[in-house]
Design brief:
Length: 637
């Protein structure tokens, strides 16, 4: 596990720049660094040593020193690959060196032989050719930008910002999309001129020309399942295997345990294959509506884990600038806060953690899927605008997780044409609301761009035979990498630990993709087959409770301890002077929230954008000014 960075081009590269690019992401690799420098390329890396701790330094090269690679991630099938490549000479005992020898054997098709999470750069000195690759679902990030006639790349955007030649400007289209989705979707980044390599894609650069192409996409064309019991058994086998290969580590290993079905299933699979008690880590809140620790304890007791907990409180003002620096881009999923703290708690005990990410996308776990299944039978209610307005009013007035809020979401959906119903459920701001927020200049710049076209395109590309299946497929290619995997990667790497996601093993994911939607979402609820498969492993209280999600009591925080911060950063002269948003529209959102309507997600999105702007564009970017002492946001229970 590492952070990587580099530049290639027709002329001599700036080695000092690449060193600075690596230094700024030293948190991703505190255990060492390495560089390759030649006439046309500089490759750099920071190492978090997990496998072959003593000898697994990078960059790695082939036997004659003509191919070099830097690599971020883990290749879980590396023992098998090393046996297959035994006619090559290996200098290390780890996984990284497989890349250069696979490239010699298979060229760019080497990615099809990898089982794991990865972002890597491979430099072919003979051909003057760079290959960048990102894993199938986007567990590991990779940013890039044209560098004159060359190209620069890095694990985090802040590395690219180290180059003084990069003009620090907001990509306005990226901002437009962010205000819809609460994250900046690939291939955009918030920095004008910087791009993300999308999941499942390769980028090649040679002689001043770059090309991006897709090498993998999930196939959701379904196959019949005549025997549900056999399918449940196969699911358990695949999960056990996915967990087994992720238990390889020379450093201490544990698991995040939220109390939900997915993380509980992973812990159960770990416990069945671990010689020692599994170390588990949970986050809780004083607000019991968001506190799942009682369920996490059920699983911890059942499997005899070494369990650790932390309570998160809302005094987050001192934490937010640090999160803004680590995330590189505005990121409005407030569960980043507990994610960061469960990672920091874990780092006190382990270096590697397994998690339950991907279970909801693989097996249909979100309640919005059940809502779309139910409401898909009904045509658009007329007049649609009236029903959407009534639904929005209910959503804003009702507490999270209540039936009134669910009814409001249903009215919002029924006021929309069936083919357009999913997008509003995934949006913070609607298109109309964004244009009401924008200044006249920003409206003119972004007129005609509909952010929901990205979601529609992902749904249209799906081979799933029914609408709910296509929504699930679209989430796997948009929400999963853009929000969930970004949150976990940044939160864990900020604390110098590695996160592994067994439920996103591509063998398991591809098998789940072909399951009929009725085995995921049906009249009995969500995640039907997965829960049936886990019945021998997990207590009924875990399997049959309502999905809670890894949320925070954001609405109450923004009316309480975080109110002054929110009002301050959104209404001071700095924010007003940007000329992006109408001050009156921002003030109205603040007032509505203070009066009891729930505008928390919209306000949080604006706060995160403003904090990001102050961190990266107003001053020169730098590492956080001071380390947190651990007492600002979190306390031991």
């Amino acid at each position: 596990m590492c952070g990587i960075a580099g530049t290639v081009g027709p002329d001599r590269r700036d080695a000092d720049l690449v060193r600075r690019m690596c230094d700024v992401i030293a948190h991703r690799g505190p255990d060492g660094e390495g560089y390759h420098v030649d006439e046309r390329a500089v490759l750099g890396m920071r190492r978090l040593a997990i496998i072959d701790v003593a000898g697994g330094q990078q960059p790695v090269s082939n036997e004659d020193g003509t191919i070099f690679a830097v690599f971020n991630g883990e290749i879980y099938n590396f023992p098998e690959l090393r046996r297959r490549l035994s006619h090559h000479r290996f200098r290390t005992a780890g996984d990284s060196e497989c890349l250069v020898h696979l490239y010699e054997e298979y060229g760019d098709d080497l990615v099809h032989h990898l089982r794991g999470m990865f972002a890597f750069a491979l430099w072919d000195t003979r051909r003057g050719r760079l290959l960048l690759a990102r894993d199938r679902v986007g567990k590991k990030p990779l940013y890039w930008r044209p560098d004159g006639a060359g190209l620069a790349f890095a694990s985090e955007a802040k590395s690219l910002v180290e180059d003084p030649r990069l003009a620090r400007r907001v990509d306005l289209v990226a901002l437009h999309h962010y205000l819809t989705y609460q994250y900046v979707p690939a291939p955009w980044s918030i920095f004008d001129g910087v791009r993300k390599l999308p999941p499942g894609h390769l980028l090649t650069w040679q002689a001043g020309r770059s090309e991006v192409r897709e090498y993998w996409r999930l196939d959701c064309s379904t196959e019949p399942v005549p025997d549900e019991a056999a399918a449940a058994q196969r699911l358990r086998e695949l999960l056990l295997d996915a967990v087994r290969v992720r238990l390889v580590s020379e450093r201490p290993l544990g698991a995040f345990l939220s109390g939900g079905v997915d993380s509980s299933a992973v812990v159960a699979a770990m416990a069945q294959q671990s010689a020692q008690p599994v170390k588990t880590f949970s986050i809780g809140f004083d607000d019991e509506r968001f506190d799942e620790r009682v369920y996490a304890r059920l699983v911890a007791r059942r499997y005899g884990t070494e369990h650790h907990e932390l309570v998160v409180t809302p005094s987050a003002a001192d934490l937010l600038p640090e999160l803004a620096w680590h995330f590189d881009e505005p990121f409005a999923d407030a569960s980043a806060i507990p994610s960061y703290y469960v990672a920091r708690l874990s780092r006190e005990h382990v270096t590697v953690v397994l998690n339950g990410d991907g279970g909801d996308e693989c097996f249909g776990g979100y309640e919005r899927y059940a809502l779309m299944r139910t409401l898909g039978r009904y045509p658009t209610l007329r007049p649609g605008g009236l029903f959407r307005a009534a639904g929005t009013g209910l959503v804003q007035r009702a507490p999270a997780g209540t039936r009134r809020r669910a009814a409001g979401r249903a009215l919002q959906v029924l006021g929309t044409a069936p083919e357009d119903r999913y997008g509003p459920l995934m949006s913070i701001f609607s298109g109309a609301d964004k244009f009401d927020l924008y200044s006249d200049d920003l409206r003119a710049e972004l007129g005609g761009i509909d952010s929901l076209d990205l979601l529609r395109a992902a749904s249209r590309r799906s081979a799933a035979p029914d609408p709910v299946g296509r929504f699930i497929d679209a989430d796997i290619h948009t929400y999963l990498p853009g929000d969930l995997l970004t949150k976990v990667d940044i939160s864990t790497m900020a604390n110098s630990i590695e996160a592994r996601s067994p439920l996103l093993d591509h063998h398991l994911l591809e098998w789940a993709g072909r399951l009929p939607t009725r085995l995921k979402v049906n009249r009995r609820g969500t995640k039907y087959l997965f829960k049936a498969a886990m019945a021998p492993w997990l207590p009924p209280e875990i399997l049959h409770r309502r999905k809670q999600g890894f949320g925070v009591p954001l609405a109450s925080w923004l009316r309480g301890e975080l109110r002054d911060l929110t009002h301050g950063v959104l209404t001071d002269d700095t924010a007003r002077g940007r000329g992006l948003f109408r001050p009156a529209a921002v003030a109205e959102l603040l007032d509505r929230h203070d009066r009891g309507l729930d505008e928390s997600r919209r306000l949080w999105a604006l706060v995160q954008f403003e904090l990001w702007h102050r961190r990266f564009l107003d001053p020169a970017p730098s590492a956080p000014a001071a380390e947190m002492d651990g007492g600002v946001l979190a306390r031991q229970p």
